[in-house]
Amino acid sequence: MITLWGRANSVNVMKVLWLLDELALPFSRIDAGGAFGRTRDPDYAAMNPNATVPTLVMPNGYSLWESNSILRYLCRTQPGGNAFYPEAPETRADVERWMDWQLGSLSDPMRVLFWTFVRTPEPERDMAAVAQALPQAGRLWGMLEAQLASRDYPAGAFSIADMTLGGFLHRWFSLPIERPEMPRLRAWYERLLERPAYRKHVAVPMS
Amino acid sequence: MLRLWGRTSSSNVMKVLWLCEELSIPYERIDAGGAFGRTNEPFYLAMNPNGRVPTIEDDGFSLWESNAILRYLANSRAPSHAIYPTAPKARADVERWMDWQLASLNGPMTTVFFTYVRTPEPERDYAAAARARDEAEALWRMVEARLAQRDYLCGDTLTLADIALSPYLHRWFALPIQRAGLAKLAAWYDRMREHHAGFRTHVAVALS
């Protein structure tokens, strides 16, 4: 069976849980990261020298880390995976562009917002950092609001780009922040909420 | 012909330039970003709403995000080339290090680079640069361990992963900072300089 290492409340673990569920792949999950520790233990470091979660271990022992790369690998190798990862170079690049954008642009300001409101006690919160991150995140979500004018999902059809972004999208709409009105972004969020796997693994209470 | 938007001093533009040279892809390049501006003009934002460089235009298809561009060019121009292996595990290995560059290496390396190269001396935050240098060194140690059994990041030959990391590698060795003696890392740097004209021409250049 597939083993997934990583605590369920990690936004990067959520991506993989969502895909495993969409593909109906049996797996077991082992808590690691955050309060669970383990990621600096020698046996974990041998699988993942970056000491992050998630790490995927396939039934034959092959292991892989970096959540977006795990999504691509599973789509490439598991039955049904190509439905979420189109093959033509242009459509594939469209999917991957949003995945890379999540890694390189979206995750930083969203991490500041999430950590401040969810993982930092109120007296210790750096509200100046929030004041900087909030408009940055708003600008980035505004890009998707524009993108969604002509499509139901960021890359056209539902894909692993949605699985990469969905955790951050849920946080954006759940955090106690002031959000600019983005009706298409909201409609996309509601569209994702129709998927049981999203509700089960991603759109859950923040912790 | 492929059109590439972006100034040559951008690490993300460098990646694309090197790949084009490595795969002999003809292209024309137009300066944009930094002092050249253009990235916030309506025509540019229509191609790339993120307002960054690089952006490519390829026969009506426009694409931004440098690592996605590398994969697209390999997929569309050289689908069976070893630079982007097709076997799932080998490909995942390449993609993992590309993602790691974006998510882990980029942050601290950008702080160090901007401090020493793009910030006037009186305005430099040396404490932030020192913290970032320590972080970056820990990350380069991961690569050092990795290179114990390999000539390139993902095996015996050059892949997109080497290209994605290469501008940061050059900066690591070119910046006026303290560096731990990482022999494999230095050998990898020398190997790319010796064997890849695209690296010498587009990446291992004076910092600006």
- From the spread of the alpha carbons, the general shape of chain B counts as globular
Roughly how much helix do the residues of chain B carry, as a percent range?
A: 55-70%
Helix content of chain A: 40-55%
Which sequence of SSEs, written as H and E, runs from N to C of chain A?
EHEHEEHHHHHH
Q: What structural category do the secondary elements of chain B indicate? A: alpha+beta
Helix/strand-derived class of chain A?
A: alpha+beta
Give the distance, in angstroms, between the N- and C-terminal Cα atoms of chain A.
28 Å
- Put simply, the count of helices of chain B is 8
Order of helices and strands of chain B: EHEHEEHHHHHH
What do you see in this structure?
The complex is a heterodimer of chains A (207) and B (208). With 207 residues, chain A is of the alpha+beta class. Chain A has helices at residues 11-22, 42-47, 67-77, 89-119, 127-147, 160-174, 183-193, 196-201, and strands at 2-5, 27-30, 55-57, 63-65. In chain A, strand 3 (55-57) and strand 4 (63-65) form a beta hairpin. The interface between A and B is medium-sized, with 31 and 31 residues.
